[in-house]
UniProtKB/TrEMBL annotation:
The keyword Phosphoprotein does not apply. Its cofactor is [4Fe-4S] cluster. This is 4-hydroxy-3-methylbut-2-en-1-yl diphosphate synthase (flavodoxin). GO terms for biological process: isopentenyl diphosphate biosynthetic process, methylerythritol 4-phosphate pathway; terpenoid biosynthetic process. Residues 36-298 form the IspG TIM-barrel domain. Pathway: Isoprenoid biosynthesis; isopentenyl diphosphate biosynthesis via DXP pathway; isopentenyl diphosphate from 1-deoxy-D-xylulose 5-phosphate: step 5/6. The gene is ispG.
């Protein structure tokens, strides 16, 4: 006989939310008095990377400002030539003049040891160095080049991300581990050896950096791959074998919806398990596309998972045969854009506004209910319904809008609500 479900009073509620964040060392990334904390009890940090030519200091500084305004808390720039290294101090100076204190991360490959040594002003202007051990030569030359970069990081008290990438994994290490694998009674697949080599390389290089004098609280690790399941497995392994702060990102994620979906799928699993201290969404922008889109995606991943709040969230129905009008779609898009555009100002004037929920619904089926659940919501009329739009504030119906100015009137109601509820003198 099949036993029926227990009565609700006898059941325990299922836990909701991500697992507690794994315990890691806290890394301070500084510029002046501004400090961004990675790891420890700090929230997951959003970062991004410019795609301008760093030699063009003005264009790079402008894009850094745009990324920072969108919410990027760290911004990485390419430092690949003497000309680029020479311009880094100018970029930093331009940002400081614009009042942009976001820390800059220098992305180094192949010749980073030489650039940092030859351009000490560049080494000082950066707040963090990104080092890829797989792109620093081989044998003793690799060890010497790595040691030079770590020595400079120690000299200027800079944080370092040791970033291993499966597209540039140390060939000597991989060959040695493949040879060792062949001696196993039951050899692993080449893919499994590669994953193990990534983790081993990251941890061993971090330990080497500490031996060279770099404080472990200055080290962030990453192991970048471009396949979702590989990334999840690598970071689960990495997090179980060390307590360094971890940078998450699916490398070469791709364009548009593919890149967004793949990054979200991989990072959400890890973040739910408490793994990850800073994230970057590596989207390939469409021609002429907005580089800040990767910042928005990173924020939305964290906010929809309930890990952080960046901007008021808009709930909107997908539409169906009851909503042949596009009014609710246009209003939802306008309100969402309006809220995000206001945040650079609102975040200082109205603390807590980033947690606000707004509903823009398209018909009577779920519209009134969703609007009541939101802080502020509107239920627009569906096809054949009475042409009126009730507005709900804190669960109560406060007004019904009609006519051609519904969108403008609702936006005014939202603005007034923000001022009343989140203003610094508010007692609500």
């Amino acid at each position: 006989m099949t036993q029926g479900p227990e009565t609700p009073s006898a059941c325990q509620p299922l836990p909701v939310g991500a697992q507690p964040k794994r315990v890691t060392r806290t890394v301070d990334v500084r510029w002046g008095d501004h400090v961004v904390k990675l790891g420890g009890s700090a929230p997951v940090v959003v970062q991004s990377m410019t795609n301008t030519d760093t030699v063009d200091a003005i264009a790079t500084a402008i894009q850094v400002k745009e990324l920072a305004r969108a919410g990027s808390e760290l911004v990485r720039i390419t430092v690949n030539t003497p000309e680029a290294a020479r311009e880094v101090p100018a970029i930093r100076e331009q940002l400081d003049r614009m009042g942009v204190n976001v820390p800059l991360v220098g992305d180094f490959h192949y010749n980073g040891h030489k650039l940092l040594a030859d351009f000490p002003e560049c080494a000082q202007a950066l707040s963090k160095y990104r080092i890829n051990p797989g792109n620093m030569g081989g044998g003793k030359r690799r060890d010497d080049n790595f040691a030079k970069m770590i020595e400079i990081a120690c000299r200027y008290d800079k944080a370092v991300r040791i970033g291993v990438n499966w597209g540039s994994l140390d060939h000597e290490l991989m060959a040695r581990m493949m040879d060792e694998n062949n001696q196993r009674a039951h050899p692993w697949t080449a893919q499994a050896v590669m994953r193990d080599a990534l983790v081993f390389s990251a941890i061993s290089n971090a330990q080497r950096a500490e031996e060279l004098g770099l404080d472990g609280k200055r080290i962030v690790l990453s192991c970048k791959v471009s396949h979702v399941q590989d990334l999840i497995t690598v970071y689960q392994d990495l997090s179980s074998r060390c307590d360094y702060a971890l940078h998450l990102g699916l490398t070469e994620a791709g364009m548009g919806s593919k890149g967004i979906v793949a990054s979200t799928a991989a990072l959400s699993v890890l973040l739910q398990q408490g793994i990850g201290d800073t994230i970057r969404i590596s989207l390939t922008p469409e021609p002429g596309g907005d580089r800040a889109r990767e910042v928005v995606v990173a924020q939305e991943i964290l906010q929809t998972m309930g890990l952080r709040a960046f901007t008021p969230m808009v709930v909107a129905c997908p539409g169906c045969g009851r909503t042949s009008s596009t009014v609710f779609q246009e209003l939802a898009n306008d309100i969402q854009s309006y809220l995000r555009d206001q945040m650079p100002v609102w975040k200082d004037l109205y603390p807590g506004v980033e947690t606000m929920n707004v509903a823009v619904m398209g018909c009577v089926v779920n519209g009134p209910g969703e609007s009541r659940h939101a802080d502020i919501g509107i239920s627009l009329p569906g096809t054949g319904e009475v042409p009126s739009a009730p507005v709900y504030v804190d669960g109560e119906r406060v007004v019904t809008l009609k006519g051609d100015t519904i969108a403008q009137e609702f936006q005014t109601i939202v603005q007034n609500y923000v001022e009343r509820r989140y203003g610094k003198t508010s007692t609500v």
